[in-house]
Structure formats: structure tokens, C-alpha cells
Amino acid sequence: MPESKAEILYLFRSNQFQRAINEWHVNNNSPDANITVAWTYTEFVAILSANPYDNKRPQLPSNFYLHLLKLPGSVLRCLPGALLAEAAGQVDGFLEHYAIDRPNPVLLYMEIIEGEAYWVAFHGPDRFFYSGRSLDDNSSAEL
Hints:
The chain is an alpha+beta fold. Helices cover 42% and strands 16% of the residues. It has a domain of 98 residues. Strands 1-2-3-4 form a four-stranded antiparallel sheet.
């Protein structure tokens, strides 16, 4: 979940977000193709914060995930890790594209427990880092 209301509002008002939604309607011959789609702030926050495995959550068009790549890294890092993981599952080459455009690892999750930081980040396809240790997709370590 984005850390502040300002960061959510940035995403909500982002031309890239609106463009992704509108392009989806055009490309899918939707009856709403000529309508500017305006989701409410509450709906947008619900989509970003909902469990991606909840089948009641609205589905995002695949090009929305591609547009995520154009957002500033500081905003992207505030998105839920589940949303980025979902993007990787929805868009072929998402992780490769992300690794090329942004060579620094992207923080997916961080939690501070008794003053100790535990974090997960990814850097390129099938390459994750957990609290400083590199994990590949064959690792048995629990995240």
C-alpha cells in the first residue's frame, strides 16, 4: 500500500494510469471507449490494497502494468509487492524490462521487527534478495 495519501493521489491523478485504462477500452472495443474513465479515489485505493487473489477485486487491464513501469521509482516502491508480483505474472518480460530500465533492486516489502529490518526486493527475472541474501527461484528459504 502506498505510504501516504499524497502518493496514492499522485497515482490516481497520473495521466499514465488514465491512459492505460482508456487504451484498454479502445483496444477491446468497449462501449466505454470514448468515455474518460474516472474511478473514485476509494475504488482506486481498494484496487491497490486488495489481495490480488481475491476474485472480488476488480481486474486491471494488462497494459496498466506496462504503464506502471513509467512511474517514478519512488512511487513504484510504495506499491504493494503483491501488485508488482501480479504485474510480473500478467506481462511477459515484465521483470526483464524492469531490470533493464531500472538496474537497482526494487523494494517489494519491508517490515521492522524489534529494530531489525526484514525486506524483500527483486532485481531481474527470478532473482530475489531477502534481507541482503540473494535467492533464486530454486531456493527453499521462506520469505
